[in-house]
Amino acid sequence: MLSQIRPAIVMIVLFTGLTGVVYPLAITGVAQLALPTQANGSLIERDGTVIGSTLIGQNFASDRYFHGRPSATTGPDPADSSKTIDAPYNASNSMGSNLGPTSKKLVDRVNGAIEAEFAAGRIDVVAADAVTTSGSGLDPHISPQFALAQAGAVARARNLSESQVRALVEANIEGRVLGAIGEPRVNVLLLNMAIDRLK
Amino acid sequence: MTSIGLAQIAIVLIAVIVAAVPLGGYIARVLAGERSLLTPALSPIERAFYRLAGVDPTRDQNWLAYTMAMLAFSVVGFGSLYALQRLQAYLPLNPQGFGGVPADLAFNTSMSFITNTNWQNYGGESTMSHLTQMLGLTVHNFVSAATGLAMAFALVRGFSRAESPTIGNFWVDLTRSTLYVLLPLSIVVALALVALGVPQTLQGSIEATTLEGAKQTLAIGPVASQEAIKELGTNGGGFFNANSAHPFESPNALSNMLEIWALLVVPFATAFAFGRAVSDYRQGRAVAITMMIVLVTGVLIAYWAEASGNPLLTEIGVDPSPGNMEGKEVRFGSAMSALFAASTTGTSCGAVNSMHDSFMPLGGLVPLFNMLMGSIAPGGVGAGLYGFLVLAIIAVFVAGLMVGRTPEYLGKKIEVREMKLAMLAVLIYPLTVLVFTGVSVMLQTGLASLNNAGPHGLSEILYAFASATDNNGSAFAGLTGNTLWYNTTLGVAMLLGRFAFVIPVLAIAGSFAAKKKGAPSVGTFPTHGPLFIGLLLGVIIVLYLLQYFPALALGPIVEHFALLAGKTF
């Protein structure tokens, strides 16, 4: 085994240089030159400030906006940094709820969300994505069903006609690639920017 | 289940097979030392590596020397990675000023990366300096996969060589697997991922002001380059905590399909490479077909379980039609989440695009059972093939017992020594998984880490040890793994799952290589037809269902019936 120590050490060093330094830097160089938009996170700017990424969901609480899915992400508690508190759509700490299908906590949480949404008059049907958290906690999309269910509430908050808002949602539905790949969805941030432009 | 969902699954699997056949031929040529398209570009680098390391590429090793070289490489890799983590506070490229990684966590992480597991008990963005991520973790994504491929081909040479004292040269196999197979594929996949939207930048984070005026910090970095080798090397260690569920790791359905393709293609190609290396294409095809049957069965069960939705939520008014969406992304849906889950555990990848902990009981049973079978459908890079060939040896032996002939596989007589070694290898898994799980559920410190109560809690612990022993790395992620107990025991499980399995395998390789190769006669049991595939499937089912049924009955199976009875925990 001793005779193998030298090749072992040299090989670790050489592969570290090749795959740990040269490879990621070369990919970075090519990506930044050829595909700068994607390589830098598909950011959206408005009036010179970055308002987010088309790929990353944001937390929407206002009645005037379409809401995304519930998010299970947390962040450090400002009062006590050793603890964490709920921080929906914290894009520096992605996570899911990891609650199992028979978890009482899960059923109670979903029940609470349904009651709150109905009480606020935001939705009339419960789409599956409307009350479940995503795997990343940063899901940028909702189902067309959930978006359309919110159209009435958003229209009322903005004094727009519901048909106008529904038409905007329909226009923002992204379909399947070639009719087969992916799931129909609506990007919440892009939809909300579109409705800001409407009024 | 919808026809579109099934079509999506079929598209990915067909694309895998279409690519795996030619890639398998290429891998066989690379590991036979033959010239290929990339030789003019890469052979100067290859020769320089051998010269600097003092390796004579023309000198083959016997199985013991081969094993010693592999172990020396793993020990040095472990030591350097451990030291890097412990000392990162004093080293450069540590902008966030992280302290040294605690001893138990550094042990677990080092073991995790040298064994191709990529179990992550740490949050990458809050624990590891840039230097540790680059120099420590990325390199092992390549070389641990290349080590797997090397060991698989050492075993294949046991069959292809006759009366030979040697089974190849570890340093040559390692170097050629990395340079000619993993690196070129990673470059292509990484650039394709960038084109599909995966970031690749040296920036650490971006500050955004959201539409509602709040601050949002977007963690970002060189994601695509890590993503590519994470899948191709069946490593699975994510750049972000949520792994491929994170939109920066997989922004859309196409990137998702590409990632599933990438994590399946090398293991399937290795099966075809095996056929070519033993000069009988049909042998590789039989292996690939058996792997595909196991994989597709798992995919369909998981898809069926997930697509029906959670009856407890349906009862309170949630629309069940998109399936169980807790822990899943809208852009992937049930079909692509089920395919990813079965593929990542059918291989030893362990990347996830949805949270397995939130799967339905029988949906979560599929990834769990895939790992308990040792990830053989189609298995990790290299590890899948050698794990599978051990089962093939056992199947041939069983067939030999039934007809009362000396069993032979590919012209090699299977005798007492090889059978003892094969059984030793397959018994390591249940021994490690069941003993550690059993002890953990008896200890307060083991139970304190649970996120879910009831039978799902047992599933969390069983899943963790299955994942570690199998060198998979996926998790029922609710379990808090970063404790002294789990850091240590999971680290030991990874060690046993890799090395206690592969050392007997390399001994089998040496033993077969030394044997004469018998010519097939009329009495030879053909190992390329449907009869053999059926026998192999039977051996797999009997072996693993008997070993694990009691544990599974207490976990996911009883949870399924509790769910049907409307019970929560």
Structural notes for this entry:
The complex is a heterodimer of chains A (199) and B (569). Chain A has 199 residues and is of the alpha+beta class. Chain A folds into two domains: 2-40, no CATH class; 44-72 and 99-198, no CATH class. Helices cover 45% and strands 14% of the residues of chain A. Chain A has helices spanning 5-34, 36-39, 104-119, 128-131, 144-158, 162-171, 188-198, and strands spanning 43-46, 49-53, 74-77, 80-86, 141-142, 173-174, 185-187. In chain A, strands 5-7-6 form a three-stranded antiparallel sheet. Chain A has a two-stranded antiparallel sheet with strand order 1-2. Chain A is extended and about 75 Å long. Chain B has 569 residues and is mainly α. Chain B has a domain at 383-564. Chain B is built from 19 helices and four strands. In chain B, the strands form two sheets. Chain B has a two-stranded antiparallel ribbon. Chain B has a two-stranded antiparallel ribbon with strand order 3-4. Chain B is globular and about 75 Å long. Classes of the chains: A alpha+beta (199), B mainly alpha (569). The interface between A and B is large, with 98 and 130 residues.
Helix content range of the residues of chain A, please? 40-55%
Shape assignment of chain B: globular
What is the H/E string of chain B?
HHHHHHHEEHHHHHHHEEHHHHH
N-to-C SSE string of chain A, H for helix and E for strand? HHEEEEHHEHHEEH
Q: What percentage of amino acids of chain B are in beta strands? A: under 5%
Per DSSP E runs of 2 or more residues, the count of β-strands of chain A stands at 7
Would you tell me the structural class of the helices and strands of chain A? alpha+beta
Rg of chain B to the nearest angstrom?
23 Å
Number-wise, the strands of chain B total 4
Number of helices of chain B: 19
Classify the oligomer: heterodimer
Low-confidence stretches of chain B: none
